[in-house]
Fold:
Amino acid sequence: KQEVTQIPAALSVPEGENLVLNCSFTDSAIYNLQWFRQDPGKGLTSLLLIQSSQREQTSGRLNASLDKSSGRSTLYIAASQPGDSATYLCAAYSGGYQKVTFGTGTKLQVIP
Amino acid sequence: EAGVAQSPRYKIIEKRQSVAFWCNPISGHATLYWYQQILGQGPKLLIQFQNNGVVDDSQLPKDRFSAERLKGVDSTLKIQPAKLEDSAVYLCASSPVQGSRNTIYFGEGSWLTVV
Structure:
């Protein structure tokens, strides 16, 4: 059974700081790893999707990496802004029927 | 392309009452998911359909929750009777036929408060 963990559960940083969010998964036989953002009272917004054949994906100030052998993914946010404040979720795709298992989330607060 | 549609967006009911949520996936998407997200937690898969067949309902509380997917398109999730701990957002998602390149698309969610 796939289990996905995110550390830390909450993070508070000053504006402008670079930061890293961590995601760990127990079953390395994944074929996608996806990062989402969730604002309070809102649904999920996809940020980056990394396929198993890839090591990383970049979009603007966001960079996500994937290391299947160690069961880890990281989301790097450069030059953080108050608008980045949200909960960040990672999700691992695995299994014959594309089961998508979510982590527990990291709540980020960027202080102006 | 229209996204995943869910209704109602918000619902407040008393415990022991029943409620139903509806989901219309993206056209042509074979896989449909229902997730439950309790405040402060990550989404938990309740049930997954491939076309109109269930492929995973291991975490669905079957004594009170039920779901169906009509003709492999729309889906409804029902809770009867509701408990206070069912207060959560219910997220519907869909995906094309399974494959390594197929991302999952979410609706806006249905917020349930049980009082």
The longest strand of chain A covers residues 30-38. The mean pLDDT of chain A is 94.
